[in-house]
Inverse folding.
């Protein structure tokens, strides 16, 4: 499969790139700097320079699926990235003839209940709620993945997925594994779910959504 990863230099994005390339997919990675391009080329990607606040649409050329793993962060430019850029990407995919139609979005646990999350996340979760809803209202073959707290510990390949899932943490490795499982399982299209570390193998957890 030809996959374009948006936010490819981030913690989840670069793991998606590495796992997808290892699985034999052709991966295009949108990055902002040559340093990031060099790093992701080592992971097996074809880097494309671009910026979500500028020009990025050329990164979609030839793709069969798109993974959104970008984020401005709680203290960053989240309105422009988590909000405006994801909405613009969704609209761009919707208007393109011939695809790609498949979109997997890495969002965040608590988007539907920001008042129950730590206060410093409230603003970014509210922005994500708007852009997630825009994706969900589109005619694309979308999946919205909402992981719990992210860690850099090695992945286990075991998760708990549902809507809602229990509050908890999850390794970025395992979030990347969930993304690839969604791309491999067409039944995940049209699904929104939360995911944390658990006791169910990733592929099984996605199949049982």
């Amino acid at each position: 499969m030809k996959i374009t990863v948006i936010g490819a230099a981030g913690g989840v994005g670069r793991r998606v790139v590495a796992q997808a390339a290892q699985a034999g997919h052709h991966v295009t990675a949108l990055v902002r700097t040559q340093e990031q391009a060099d790093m992701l080329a080592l992971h097996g990607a074809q880097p494309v320079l671009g910026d979500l606040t500028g020009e990025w649409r050329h990164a979609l050329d030839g793709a069969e699926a798109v993974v959104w793993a970008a984020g401005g962060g709680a203290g960053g430019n989240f309105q422009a990235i988590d909000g405006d850029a994801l909405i613009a990407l969704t609209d761009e995919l919707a208007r393109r003839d011939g695809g790609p139609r498949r979109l997997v979005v890495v969002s965040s646990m608590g988007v539907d209940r920001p008042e129950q999350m730590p206060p410093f996340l409230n603003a970014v979760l509210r922005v994500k709620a708007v852009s997630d809803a825009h994706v969900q209202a589109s005619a694309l073959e979308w999946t919205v993945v909402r992981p719990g707290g992210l860690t850099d510990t090695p992945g286990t390949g075991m998760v708990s997925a549902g809507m809602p899932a229990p509050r908890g943490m999850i390794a970025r490795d395992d979030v990347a594994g969930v993304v690839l499982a969604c791309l491999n399982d067409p039944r995940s299209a049209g699904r929104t779910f939360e995911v944390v570390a658990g006791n169910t193998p990733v592929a099984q957890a996605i199949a049982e959504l």
In short: The mean pLDDT is 95. Residues 78-95 form the longest helix (18 residues). The chain has six helices and eleven strands. The two ends are 23 Å apart (CA to CA).
